[in-house]
Amino acid sequence: MKVKRFLFTALCCSGMAAYATPKPNVLLIYADDMGYGEIQRFHPEASKVPTPHLNQLCDEGMMFTDAHTSASVCTPSRYALLTGRYNWRSRHQSGVSKGGQPCLIAPDRMTLASLFKEQGYRTSMFGKWHLDFQYQIPEGAKKMKTKRELWYYGAPVGTVIPDGPVSRGFDYYLGFHHSSSMSSVIENDKVIEYLSTIKMMGRLTDAVVHSFDEFAKGEQEQPFFVYFPINSPHKPVVPREDWKGRGGIDDPYTEFVAQTDDAIGQILTALERNGLKENTIVLFGTDNGCHLPADTFLEFGHEVSGPFRDKKASIYEGGHHIPFIVRWPGVVAAGSTNDRLICMSDLFATFAEYFAVELGDDTAEDSISFLPLLKDADSKAQRESIVHHDFKGRFAIREGEWKLILRPDDNMKEATGAEARFQLYNVKEDIAETDNLANEYPEKVDILVALLKKQVADGRTTPGAVQKNDANVDIWKNNVVSKKKKNR
């Protein structure tokens, strides 16, 4: 089969025999709102929450220290992960979805799940969807009255979901739409029960573990792809009572992080117990940064955002710079670290290259394979640039060590020249984004603005035919002064 868009086709096609056979199982874990500084291996100098299982995953795999989500909030980052396409090319231009609208992923768009399904995988998802779907509520159905231990309900029991995960490439789904509707538990395409939010992490973890136990009992002719977008440590912060005092810092949030690590440990143990560890690729990432301010636990020596500025929803590194780990026995060097730039949208092209699948021009338009980096950390494979997006839909673009934010710094009230419109940082030398160099390097500002305009206009950042975005993309909206502010 002809393979296009891949920088290192020879590695995939001629090197297939070097990979484990039969096809490896794949487990993708996506934590919710977990900052870079939460995992001790990523930020040992100021990480006080015990994360022994994620530490072990780092020791057995490869840590990526320059990994990013496409946006700094849930919905857009999940769209890019599952489609390999920047979120702002869709109709979703800012904020997050609330459910009750048509699915953000078009029905004819290939997803990461459908890619695996076409390769003969059994595809399952356990957890948070947050990409919109519609509710077909049965006549006469009523929402259960809210109780103290429950969160907001998305829809009554019996509600049918016509355009959820099982319509977008997944064979099986158990989960909920988003955290504010977590108590409405969905199985496949129907709301089946109400569940206390404090029980959700355990319910999802048990379901994933059970799926591995059942898989091990079968013939195992069909490999699995399991996507586990866990509900934690996003709000509501609801650690179980038995985790009180076990978070390294006396706070429910740190206890919830520690419980999250334990849930991941249970799943990794289930793989090993069932003899599945050696032929299962495990990937761990987060959907964006921590929802708490970066200085929340500084008095205890803990930095939720690591060395980065700000937090979830922000255009700064603390919003989208995440911990990412890949464990692939026999392929990825244990205990290795990689500082190459990657985006979570790149998982699509990475697995497409591994399977030698030809991607159409209208598929995974912003996904760049990092498969060569998994086999050889010193490979020359390189994502050259990445576009960042924040909660309000404001843009930044990174190329190499330079990052341009298309808005002024709110902390610089008297900025003049280019600094009154832009922020330019050398993130290699200034990862905390404190020294705005826009006035010193105006030519770099112009180059990066031109690059962003081109990538928006082309409808893609990979080789191939120009594509249309689903909506008008205005890169300057973050610089527009509102009428309310203008009239003050």
Feature tags:
disordered C terminus; Alkaline Phosphatase, subunit A; single chain; 4-stranded antiparallel sheet; 488 residues; 11-stranded mixed sheet; Arylsulfatase, C-terminal domain; 2 domains; alpha/beta; disordered N terminus; 11 helices
Brief rundown of the structure:
This protein is α/β, with parallel strands linked by helices and 488 residues long. It is built from 11 helices and 15 strands. The chain starts with 8 loop residues before the first helix and ends with a helix.
Structural class: alpha/beta
In the CATH scheme, the class of the largest domain would be Alpha Beta
Instruction: Give the domain tally.
Output: 2
Q: Would you identify the CATH H-level superfamily of the largest domain?
A: Alkaline Phosphatase, subunit A
Q: How many helices in DSSP terms?
A: 11
Our Rg estimate from Cα atoms comes to 22 Å
**N-C termini distance:** 63 Å
- Could you state the order of secondary-structure elements as H and E? HEHEHHEEEEHEHEHEEEHHEEEEHH
Oligomer: single chain
Strand content: 15-25%
Q: Write down how many β-strands occur, each being a DSSP E stretch of 2 or more residues.
A: 15
